Amino acid sequence: MKQEIKILDFNNTDLLETFFDWTAMLSIRRTGLKVNIWSKWDFTKISKEKPNIIIGRAEYWNRYIVVVTISPNPKIIAKTPNIIDEQKQELEEGIKYVARNYDLFLKHYNNDGNNGAGFDDEDLINALKEKGEYKRYK
Hints:
- It is a single chain.
- The chain is an alpha+beta fold.
- It has one domain (6-129).
- The protein is 34% helix and 21% strand.
- It has helices at residues 13-20, 28-31, 85-100, 102-110, 121-130, and strands at 6-7, 24-26, 36-39, 52-59, 62-69, 76-79.
- Strands 1-6-5-4-3-2 form a six-stranded mixed beta sheet.
């Protein structure tokens, strides 16, 4: 049975505010990907399927995004319409990045780690740096 993928409407300003509020953004410049990754603790207004993470580009002139599950094999649960082949390839690289680092994204999503002290944005970024998945400023 094929899974239904929710289509995201970015003309809905409430959705946009929800989407990018209180997130750790892993930028193109820092990950080496052609897409950004937004890691957040809870996206229940977008999808009831948890845990999940956002991958894509969000400039008003260049907006294509997928929401995927955080797992070793992420699946797309929501997306913007009309994603072209080149963008699909870029998103696939982002999905692979999430798969490689799913353990860290899961800790961040659950705010779980550091002997009960939580796993916040800085902890996520530092852990990705240690794995060589996040570049330092030069």
